[in-house]
Amino acid sequence: MTFVLGGETTTQTAAAPSIPQSLDLRWKGLNDVTGVCRTITTQPITLLNLGSNQIGVAGTQHLAAAIQSEKCSLTWLSLNFNCIGAEGVRHLATAIQSEHCTLTELLLCANKIGDEGARHIATAIQTRKSALTKLNLYDNRIGDEGARYIAIALQSPNCSLRVLTLTKNLIGEEGARHIAFAVQTDTCKLTKLDMWNNRMLYLVSAVISQAVERSEPVHTVIMQHITCKDSEVTATELKAFLALASHSRWADVTKHILSKLLWNVSEEDEEDRW
Fold this sequence. Notes:
Elements: E1 2-5, E2 8-11, E3 22-24, H1 34-40, E4 47-49, H2 56-67, E5 76-78, H3 85-96, E6 105-107, H4 114-125, E7 134-136, H5 144-154, E8 163-165, H6 173-183, E9 192-194, H7 202-214, H8 218-227, H9 235-244, H10 251-273
Parallel strand pairs: 3-4, 4-5, 5-6, 6-7, 7-8, 8-9
Antiparallel strand pairs: 1-2
């Protein structure tokens, strides 16, 4: 196209039509992802949302193969609510470890992956080739064993995770101890951790999450709760803190918890007398 500006002729080339970089296919009832795989390996798609479909294990396997292609540019992938299970996660874990995989954020909410699935994803995120920085494992029936696998991965110098969601799982006090220890190691890179609505006490999950967000040791946050005048920590919560503080490096906070616990018990005895 030619324009005349101030007596001078200027030629402007028409801009090429833009190709969408995101593909939102939520709630489409998809179980065959052949076309999707073809699209993400032939077009520069960086964001793909396949939430609330019927992808299953077979579909996940095909998708994982496409993600490993050097022609795939995906950086963000949601497979929320697709019932891919532990076997589906195993295929994704293989893809994440591929040298051509460019994924940095993966959402796997409500896929019933369990402890076995947690083991597969934990193995993947601690490899040097994994580029994942955000991982959402909300509502996946992950218990203490799965939490232990994830905790081991978080301590790996190769793990690049910054944000991790473990909300609404089955993680109890044992799993909380593993995670608490992992997040205070020098090699853990987490800056945000959500663990609400598990089988551990609410205050325990809050303490661990606060420690991550504040970049403070877990035992420091525990001490803040114990010594705060406005905080009323129950005997049950103190016992849970004591379990978290069982590591030898936390000897000082253990003494404070024990003294506080004994004080609470003595107060309860005094009330019973009345």
